[in-house]
Amino acid sequence: MTAKHGGTKITINYVAEKAGVSKTTVSRFLNGRFEMISADTRERIASVVEELDYRPNRIAQSLKSRSSRTIGCLVSDIGSPFSSILVKGISSVLNEQGYRLILADSEDNPVNERNAIDSFLESQVDGLIVNSTGANDRFLLQLRDNGLPVVFADRCLSIPGEIDTVETNNTEMTCSCMQYLSRMGYTKVGFFANGIGKNTTRMARLSGYLKTMEEVFGYDGRDTVYEYVSHGDGSGCADKILKFITTYSQERVALFAVNGVAMLDILNALQKMKLQAGADVGVCGFDNWGWADLIPPGITTIAQDSFAVGAEAAKIILDRLSGEGDPACRKIVLPSKLEVRGSTVR
Amino acid sequence: MTAKHGGTKITINYVAEKAGVSKTTVSRFLNGRFEMISADTRERIASVVEELDYRPNRIAQSLKSRSSRTIGCLVSDIGSPFSSILVKGISSVLNEQGYRLILADSEDNPVNERNAIDSFLESQVDGLIVNSTGANDRFLLQLRDNGLPVVFADRCLSIPGEIDTVETNNTEMTCSCMQYLSRMGYTKVGFFANGIGKNTTRMARLSGYLKTMEEVFGYDGRDTVYEYVSHGDGSGCADKILKFITTYSQERVALFAVNGVAMLDILNALQKMKLQAGADVGVCGFDNWGWADLIPPGITTIAQDSFAVGAEAAKIILDRLSGEGDPACRKIVLPSKLEVRGSTVR
DNA sequence: CTGTTAGCGCCTTCAT
DNA sequence: ATGAAGGCGCTAACAG
């Protein structure tokens, strides 16, 4: 609802009338083409705009210009710290450039995801930043091929093809982390994931894990991959942890969390089982959401810069829109940081 | 970018042409007015729409209908778990009703906030859900008076006036929490806030605190209110904690965190000072973000249902838009929950 | 049942 | 330096 004045909607027409000029002139004024306007009329328009508190209708502008200056952003769960900070990064860059952000939460559901994409398209978004479930990748690729800038953030394409991507060095960092665990004397590492499915981020971490298990630990890691359903309280993974620990009671074992959710689950489960991270079993994994230092003996985590992931994704979109930068497909891999704490020491 | 076909933008006109009918008929078809269409043409249009993968342009629809079916949501920090879950609640309700969500992050800055609101207005949003900084409340009230539905979420109006509001029972719960601390034998409680300013939520909690300090603890709480600047690592409040504790070394003292950020700061500071929550000093406060149970001896927290706050705010907006429900100004106060753990015991 | 016409608010040639 | 006219894609009278 734009400001009103005695019941009349304030449009460019109304401003023109009040200022005694044509709407063409007002339009020029609004778009800063001052060279074509006399100082006199320019001032007159300015004062009318000011007085009426006129706000141009972006909807009408968009219809005419065929550009909404709006980016659609689709995340799998806006409630998770990772996603929300990712969105903050996106928002920060877009806002700076006068772009608007439409947000949708797929809840990791392919149907919701598809609906959200359709809605974005109908809204005439100028670009798409996606935390894809993987199920609609063919469709997304096709949209990109039709000319719509699409960037994958914290996900890569789950099918053959090329698309702009920004993500963390998932595989490499998982390898590094595993190597670190090996150096610390652990002989078996359990990989705990609240589902893997088509989630390429989790798959990338899994692949780094499997590789290092084979090459460094010298065993087939598939035996120690534990998928479970998270209930947010550790109940989903407790039995799997127990099984892992008892199966390898003769070894030095550690638990690896594929992400922050799994990490919380593991810690909750250990607490219920009266097991101490560090002393009884090694614990480490992805995502430092602010409390890793506070849970004794300090939890070894891999911290990601999700703000940067979002910011870079937004920058790519804007580059694509302006035609700037290398037109070749971009794959940005951002570093993460292994933060060693007590839970993987001795 | 809507789907293309040999370079032609697919519009309602194009569909009409292909189907050999007028665009009016196609429009009727799209809007489900099937009574006015013969089964034959109806089928013809359906197949053309399907074949062309036609998507109506919501921009054009909005221009015509003067309704964008879009709600603007302004939060102070989308990166915080409180806000992001709030947004999830909003998104969930809006999505269900086919409304879109434009998001902006004010970073608690009044200028950013004002710009975001202006941008929302230009985008012709049908309503506004705001996590107000307080600095633009007069403006927001005026917008509402001009007919734009505006709902305050997790904030109330900082100036005289009435506006739809959804928030947690901040004052009452803070009182309850203080009374609980009194019963537990604490005699002094420090109120720690990462800034209060015009933030009405923090002010409400402060007022509950001051009231109970006077009525139950029997002292002027203003002496034990500590405002500081958060750096995310506790460094901002460590000296204030130290001062509080040493000043009242003869008393049984507890620290109260005004929100989750302050809570993390306090815990980090205590850790650095080698002080134990619970044993050395009582600790409790707002926001349970999943780890309260895991930090020994368990941190007593006040858990808010921020999803519900968002969902209720969105429902009010939709009610206002549809004219349903009580037209009187609504003040929804949602319950929160005091979760007692070891940090306030003995 | 279907089409014609006009117009939402704005921008953009093309004249003047 | 300024304006008139047309059109972006869609909906809604108003006619038939």
Describe this structure in words.
Chains A, B: GO terms for molecular function: DNA-binding transcription factor activity; transcription cis-regulatory region binding. Chains A, B: This is Transcriptional regulator, LacI family. Chains A, B: Residues 9-55 form the HTH cro/C1-type domain. In chain A, α1 packs across α3, α5 (81-96) runs parallel beside α12 (306-322) and α8 packs parallel to α9. The first copy, chain A, has twelve helices and 14 strands. In chain A, 43% of the residues lie in helices and 17% in strands. In chain A, a hairpin with a 2-residue loop joins β1 and β2. Chain A is elongated. Chain A has 346 residues and is an alpha/beta fold. Chain A has helices at 12-19, 23-30, 39-52, 58-65, 81-96, 110-122, 137-145, 170-183, 200-217, 238-247, 260-272, 306-322, and strands spanning 4-5, 8-9, 70-75, 100-105, 127-130, 150-153, 164-168, 188-193, 225-227, 253-257, 282-286, 300-303, 331-334, 337-339. Chain A has three domains: 4-56, 434 Repressor (Amino-terminal Domain); 68-167 and 307-334, Response regulator (Rossmann fold); 170-304 and 338-344, Rossmann fold (3-Layer(aba) Sandwich), CATH 3.40.50.2300. Chains A and B meet through α4, α5, β4, α6 and α11 of A and α4, α5, β4, α6 and α11 of B. The structure holds a DNA duplex (16 and 16 nucleotides).
- Please indicate the percent range of residues of chain A in DSSP E strands (runs of 2 or more): 15-25%
Query: How far is the N terminus from the C terminus of chain A?
Result: 63 Å
CATH architecture of the largest domain in chain A: 3-Layer(aba) Sandwich
> Helix content range of the residues of chain A, please?
40-55%
Topology, number of strands of chain A: 14
CATH topology-level name of the largest domain in chain A = Rossmann fold
Rg over C-alpha atoms of chain A, rounded to the nearest angstrom: 26 Å
Estimated structural class of chain A? alpha/beta
Domain unit count of chain A: 3
Keywords (chains A, B): DNA-binding, Transcription, Transcription regulation
Domain HTH lacI-type (chains A, B): 10-65
Domain HTH cro/C1-type (chains A, B): 9-55
Organism (chains A, B): [Clostridium] aminophilum
